[in-house]
Amino acid sequence: MCKNTDTTTIFATALPSTTANTRQKICEKWVGVPYVRDGRSTSGVDCTGLLYCIYEEYGYTFPLRSFPRQQSNWLPIILRTLQECFKVRQDRKAQFLDLLLFNVLSASSRIYHCGLYLEADLFIHVMGTRKVRTDSLSQWTPNLVKAMEPRRM
Predict the structure, then answer these.
(1) Which of the four CATH numbers 3.90.1720.10, 3.10.20.90, 3.40.50.720, 3.30.70.120 does domain 2-150 have?
(2) N or C terminus: which one in the chain shows less Cβ crowding within 10 Å?
(3) Residue 55: in which H helix or E strand, if any?
(4) Is the pLDDT of residue 103 over 60?
(5) Is residue 118 helix, strand or coil?
(6) What is the pTM of this model?
(7) Adjacent-strand bridge partners of 115
(8) What is the distance between the alpha carbons of residues 27 and 40, in angstroms, rounded to a whole number?
(9) Is there a contact between 12 and 90 (Cβ–Cβ < 8 Å)?
């Protein structure tokens, strides 16, 4: 089982159906929300906060609140921990609400960004000082490290 240091069990229930209505609700709620470091609401989110909030709506719980964010390397630590709660899609073909992990620093092999796959080459994410938006995954493919699906318990 995937657990954090506070022994909170990380669990997954069935993902919502991939209807256009479900995808539309996610976009209506989140697109345009401002970037706020450590944000966890529609008032503002960072990239890990966005995935935390969306997954939480569907019954997933992840260990994000217990990390000391004052450390300069907090994002890679969070993303490395989250990877324990997901399994890699070997074919790298993302499906609805898969976690996408990116390396956005060309001089580094570490993962520094994440988003959630929606459909038809679109994913939802937020980067510093910008608002939540959807982008074409094909434009980000050079930076895509892996696509991962939540582990079912």
Answers:
(1) 3.90.1720.10
(2) N
(3) helix 47-57
(4) yes
(5) strand
(6) 0.78
(7) 100
(8) 16
(9) no
